[in-house]
Amino acid sequence: MKLSEYLLMKPELSLIVVFLLLIFYDLFASEKAKKHYFPVACGLFLVHTIVCFFFCVPDSATAFGGMYITGPAQITIKHVLNIGLFLIFLQANTWLSRPDTIFKRGEFFMLTILTLLGMYLMVSSGNFLLFFIGLEMASLPVAALVAFDKYRHHSAEAGAKYIFNAVFSSAVMIFGISFIYGACGTLYFAELGANMLYDPLLIMGMIFFMCGLFFKIALVPFHLWAADVYEGSPTNVTLYLSTISKGAAAFALMAILYKVFPVLSNVWVDVISIIIMLTILVGNLFALRQKNMKRFLAFSSISQAGYIMLSVFSGTSLGMSATIYFIFVYVFSNLAAFGVITAIENKTGKVNMDDYNGLYYTNPKLALAMMIAMFSLGGIPPTAGFFSKFFVFIAAMDQGHTFLVFFALINTVISLFYYLLVVKAMFIKKNNSPIECVKTDGYLKASLVLSMIGIGLVGLVSCIYEYFASVSFGI
Fold first, then answer.
1. Helices 384-398 and 402-427, interaxial angle, to 10°?
2. pLDDT per position as a tens digit, 368-388
3. Would you list the domain boundaries of the chain?
4. Rounded to an integer, what distance in angstroms lies between the CA atom of residue 77 and that of residue 98?
């Protein structure tokens, strides 16, 4: 191993430095200094995000014999994950200032940064072993985050459900990886893609591996954990699961499908087509029935996962740029929606859709932010969500998936109905006891403002998509 190989891992090394600095600050800072832990943690992570953007050169290279891969696409998706997590941190201040969580602020930041480090390794893996290590590093701390409010609501129950499902899915995945190794004698993506033959054992290994990864993305029929876990988790953790975790897993799946299993495309194309249709349809139908806002957005995120897979399914540079762009837009849209939910839940504890009746008359700014978020998630122009779905459909049509695109378009109309139910509740329905005026802290306001700017500008400023397209030639 050479030092130059470690220097290729600049994002990972920078994140480890932030992690260590936060540990030392939490351990050795005085009680007076610890009162500033939150701005220090956010500031350090912001510095990491800026350093990655300006100093991580997006050149294609490999390290450690091909186990670690970096390139324009990998660096770009890491930028997207950094921006999303920074905004999530901004939304967590009020929650982490509660008497029962203030002493656990350090644990929240450290666990979350560890999961992000695992996602970095997933995204840059060139070997199934490193991919699995990254996946577990991203999954196990999440179980602790889900159960963070163990004495409130159903957080402990959600944590137990998540860890049991995560363990089962990891066992299925490692079982599939063992089949792949038994059939090919290697775990390196490049060697597998070059030497893979049509083999029943290999097909079985691929199916088991994909089933394990489908759990992370919450694709039907591996989605049953999502609603209960999202509802029971702290809202900021729910947001993390529905955006950052899902985006990293979708990108990794796309890379593996077209690096490792192109020979078996005639097998997985039909399977994934069916899963995409079921995911979009089931997510939409169940979202229609939800009254709890967190469960509502849980099934919405399941449906959105189907749209992400529609671009993943394309397997071209156009499909990759659409995937990264969709994830980027989805991060801003979900952040805005959950930001409003966070503000109201922290102040009143209310999370039901009926509680939002008449919200515009007492909290017009929050109502407008939620409306724009719903429009973006539903794909209504001129929000960025419209353009993200447009590019996804173009990428799928380019590969001849006409029926899938038609099916997705029909379901987009269904999704508009339930997204507009939230808008109707806030602006049209009356409420004898509406939610009182909610005052948000500066950090949450900044997150909401940045999310609104993202929803408004990411779709209209064409150079943003052009940048994603320029870095998406090859995975």
1. 170
2. 998 999 999 888 888 888 888
3. 3-470
4. 33
